Amino acid sequence: MHGADNSRCIGGSAALAPQGAVARLPWLACLVVIAVSAYAVSGWALAAHHFFYADDWGWLERVAFDIDTFRLVPEKVYNDRPAGEFFIKWMYEWFGLNAHPYNVLWLLLHIFNSILLFFLAANYLPRNRALLAAVLAASWYSTLIAVHWVAAIFDLAGATWCLLCLLFYVHSSRESCWSPLWLVGAFCLHVLAIRTKEFALALVVVLASWEFLLIESKDLRRRLSRLAPHVLLTLVYGLIYLRLFSLQKPFVSSGIYSMSLSLSTILENAISYLSMAFYMPAPDKDFAWRLAAYALLVAMLLLGCSSRKTLAAMVSAVALLAAVLLMPNQQSALYLYVPHFFVAFVLCAVAPRCRVATVITWLTVGLIIGWPFFTGGWKASRNFYLTTGEYSERLHNDYVRLMQGRPPPVPLTIAVSKTYFDPFSWGHGSFLRIRYGNPDITANVVSLSGPDDDVCAHVSGTCLIEQSGHLVLRQGSAPSGTTQPIPSPLVPKLSARRLVR
Length: 501
Hints:
single chain, mainly alpha
């Protein structure tokens, strides 16, 4: 079954479409094409002002003071992700608060993930289709938030471990003296995936779908022996997480990460994520778009059932998205990153030897990649990230300049126009604790209601206030000990809040 396909064109013959120049490209040239495609769409992330913001500061603070080593067993139901946190910790130890190396590594990881998809797809598709799937995955802009955001390393690295695990698993199914090593490697990568982000608990479904739909074997016992360690691993971690959920019931029963097992929730989330991926408006705002979203869902399901290849990839995509399909209060395009690799496989695996299907596939991929450039969505998104990063970097630099190496003043009030995106709001002073190496430092960070808001008149001690985009050093006007609390939309220290645009 590897590389073979007996698909026939509807109403046509089984004649193979010519592979063309793409099929004759050497492997190295294919990898270059994938890398160039990813850079063309996401290379702006290497811009000088693409700085840390929002959740980034929580994770940077965590690695600055966390000395724990890798833990096999999770201790918390959420954000206990050492195999992903390692990337931030390693980068922080080498580069501190220089954001550029982080952005370089994140983009390289994305290119590596797209190349992994190419090698995986090349086992089952002609080289031109495998390359097309990898180029689509590398350039599908609506699904790439994880590439542009340091705090999203868990989706980025999670995809790395999942794709590597599946690739190792596929190689372990072949008759070779290396098969046991491939299988051990797949098991270790499965552990890394689960300890990177919780969605990888569904990775066993991915492996099972490829095992029974794509991997050739007449020996059921051998199939089950390959899959058994992964099933056992999933059961062990599943029981651990069930226990943690039982100890933290409010997490799944209320709040932004609450879960619902209703069919309506799953369907609503499914059409919402499809709408995000395919650049459609939110389906809940207009009946026509809602109808279009359901039509798209039906079309994707039909494509997913068109062959064993597409079915295995569709099952994989749904499995890796399953956790967020159960969350009615939390929807973000961030969660599309991991499953989008398998959706790209589905779109590029339909009738790979059919001329008509090949033309339609190329047009579809071109439309998906080009749409955000045509509509201006790519430019708007890029500008959002760069202006947000520049804002955070500017306030960071202003603080360093104004304090001139002096110890942090106490009490300290900082008034900014964009709480959450500035360096100080997260955890009431995460950046300050990182800079001074003191986990006990706090700041009173408040949101300015307008350019004429004089926050410093209501507080005592040192006051930094944003004026014309820069911090200005002021002295609080209120008598000492009479500072009034000022309500502000602050983010709790190390909370799990996600950026949803």
